[in-house]
Task: structure prediction
Amino acid sequence: MKILSTRLFLILSLTIMLISCKKDNELSKSVYIPDPENNGLPAYSEWGYNTFGAYIDRCIFVSNDYVVPVKVIVTEGNTSIRLQGDQGACSDSDISLTFKLMGFSPESYTDFSIFNDSTINLTNENVEVYINESSAEKKVQVISGELTFKRIQQLYVDEELVEIIASGVFDVKGLIENEPKYIFEGRFDLGIGNDNFYRY
Amino acid sequence: MQLLHHNSIYYENYFMTRLITLTFLLLEALISTSQESKILLFGAEAGFISSMNELNNNDHIRGYVSYPMGYYSSSIISASDRIFFGLKGESIFGENAHWAIATGLRYSRNSDVISDNSLHYNSTGYFYWKYSEDEEKTEYLKIENIYQNSHYLGLPVELKYFISVPVKLRLYLKMGAEFNLLLANRSKIDFRNPDMKGYESTVSDQIADPNTISLALYGAGGFKYGYDDNISVSMELVAPHVNLIPSDNALVKSYAGAGFQINVQYPFNKLIK
Result:
């Protein structure tokens, strides 16, 4: 009887913990608002909807509900902003696009505020772009491209800082293993907080 | 701003005076009609209407975007209900007393509410309200419910057709119109975190008021129990109740609804004796 009570207590505790986690993670969910002008892509927004999207030639590259759309990794004095999603009907495999900012080493996610209303030229020697498809990472030889942070906001909920919202646009024209690729109409609206900011 | 406030008070007073004058003119017309038919009833009414509605496009709610076909990107739901009661005079006329016309004064309280749909698979029990933003900082509040209660004084005009000749139980059909004037409006907010109660006036100020005037048409069908020379009770289903001036600014925009109405009537000549 005691064992049954203990198990019941554990199950109830686990259920309550799961419910609690779900509520705390509300801001991490993606809210997909379709762009009526660019089929298959999310509309540009600045609400922290945790979505991004772009066209890679004729395929779409978009965030989804199952994979964390952005991870920021700070290591060895460099910062990688990795967008991870899928290609819709073009391919079943996951795909990620990484912008690596050499020499930028923020202590905290709030340090991204310095990028507010700024554009990074992707042909700059301190920037590298990678595409990872089917676990094979390939460096993009950038011909032209820009990553623009239109707005970086600090988000407070009930007077507590919970994350920053990075919203902007990007496009990249380049070669991947000598194959020309054009990534265009890129847009993102992403929350970056303790859960997706890694520094080691 | 003060000038605007004075203008608003001026127009409310103006409409109120006109509304009451019009009510008395209509009642006088009823009395003169009844002098020919000899049947004038005085009574009280009460009722309830629940309306189909949608949240007005709101720039403050995170994730609330409507698409065609009534699909929304979030689990937020809204409701719009109103209760009313009033006093009415009714004149019965025509061959075999088949027709009746009624008017009076009606008080209505409209209650709109938005909340997170607890039955939705994505429900959290709250939603985010953006109450402040500048270039670098955006601030949300977690809110469970927002209520907007609006109080109206109205003038109903109703035309009734009795299907049968005068018997104790008579079925009837009715068409009505009502003109309402907004008297007062108040919002109430349930915050997820009770410590945020201090923001209630901030959020309330960000919710626009409903229209100052409203106009609705409605149909109804019901039965009356009792003879015209004594106390009688009637009950009816009101459907549809169509709001002709949906409010584009208030919390909720209600279009059409249905409900019920109860009337208790007594002959006017017995009442004044």
Remarks:
- Residues 55 and 178 of chain A are 19 Å apart (CA to CA).
- Chain A is about 10% helix and 50% strand.
- Chain A touches chain B through 24 residues (CB under 8 Å).
